Amino acid sequence: MGRVLPLLVLFLLPALAQSAFAPLKDHPLRKQAEAYLLAAQKGLEAQASPLALNVQGNYARLSYTCTPEALCQSLPEDGKALTLALVLNPFPFGDGADALERARIALRRAELAYRRTLTALQAQAVAAHGRYQEALLGVRIAEKGVELARLALEAAQKRQANPQELREAELSLREAENRLEEARRGLALAQKAAEGLVDPKAPLPEIPPPQGKTPLSLEEARLNLAEARIGEGAALRNLLPTLQGSLNLYPSGNETLSLSLTSRDLKPTLAYTRQDPARQPTVIPNAGQYETKEELRLTLSLTLSPGLFAAYEASQAQVKAAQEALRAAEEQAALEGDTLEHNLKTAQSALALAEARYAAAQKALEEARTRQALGLESLLGVKRAELNLLQAELARLQAQNNHRNALMELYRFYGEILKEVAQ
């Protein structure tokens, strides 16, 4: 049993560490980002659908002028038609390829927005956790200050100090008590600020350095360039002629089978139409009549307009602007990355110094207690050493929090989500 308990504690440690970020799972901004991401995924699925079914119904009310008038009685009063069409999407091309690529870009943007949201939330959570721990330690320091001020007052009373010294000691005690009240209010405020972000009483997990891949701003700039190029291709396609082809078969006067295709997207459309009344044969006077059983139609259209040429030039300008924006983003990302790395190294140096000062304060407290055991140090001196140690501990905690915050800024820069937050 003695071996099982430590193993159980080690097994539970990761779960305990992950629980600090548990409030982020239900944060409204995270839910919003997840909803946008799901919408973008569904939009891509809609564009990538291999087929679509279309149903169309037509009704017409007919009116005639007949000579002789009796002829109108034999003509139909209305016309009805029902069309079932199947639109196939065997491969992306033209307008269809543009729509699919835009949906992919929208999904990628939603993913970047999701990463941006979560990295911002996790940075806020880490900062809030650090502020709470600092406030908690601040209360301990304030309590130690009250204890030290009370001992100083008692010592002044025992040695029958003059009235001025007693008044100063009493004022010092009141100031210490005021600082304690302020520290407690600060602790309550820090706990309230942490609500919905982090469990301030749970330990934070170990935060390793980020992997350092592509910055978020650079990925967004690349997406903008890709979208501008799609617009340029679509504008160029508007300047080209469009070829449309259709093959119609007429098995009977009431039925039509058709296959149509356009060069804009190369999506074949199969359609079946049932109409009433039936088509009548074409009558040639003094010769007879005939019925069309098959029809192949080709249509070539070309639109020339100054607006189309202007739109193409505008799309080229947008591509140029996106390229320059990408260059600017690369330069800015390089500078920002170097700055964040510099800040991290500065925080690491400050943390090492704070650790050394904390160790020195620990050593000073041990020496004060040793001198007290030998009768060479008063209780008041030991309490001062204890207060110095708490202040050194606060400085170390602040340095640790600054180091974590510098790490989290790098996580935001690269859009990297902690595994404890992503779960």
- In the sheet with the most strands, the strands line up as 1-2-5-4-3-8
Question: What fold name stands as the CATH topology of the domain at 206-239 and 307-418?
Answer: Outer membrane efflux proteins (OEP)
Beta-strand share of residues: 5-15%
The count of strands amounts to 8
* Outline type: elongated
Description of the molecule:
With 423 residues, this protein is of the alpha+beta class. It has a domain at 206-239 and 307-418: Outer membrane efflux proteins (OEP) (Up-down Bundle). 62% of the residues lie in helices and 15% in strands. The protein has helices at 4-18, 28-47, 94-158, 163-194, 216-239, 306-373, 379-414, 419-422; strands spanning 51-61, 78-88, 242-252, 255-262, 269-276, 282-284, 288-290, 294-301. The chain has a six-stranded antiparallel beta sheet, with no helix packed on it. Helix 2 (28-47) runs antiparallel to helix 3, helix 3 (94-158) runs antiparallel to helix 4 (163-194) and helix 5 packs antiparallel against helix 6. The protein is elongated and about 140 Å long. Residues 1-22 form the signal peptide. Pfam families: OEP. Belongs to the outer membrane factor (OMF) (TC 1.B.17) family.
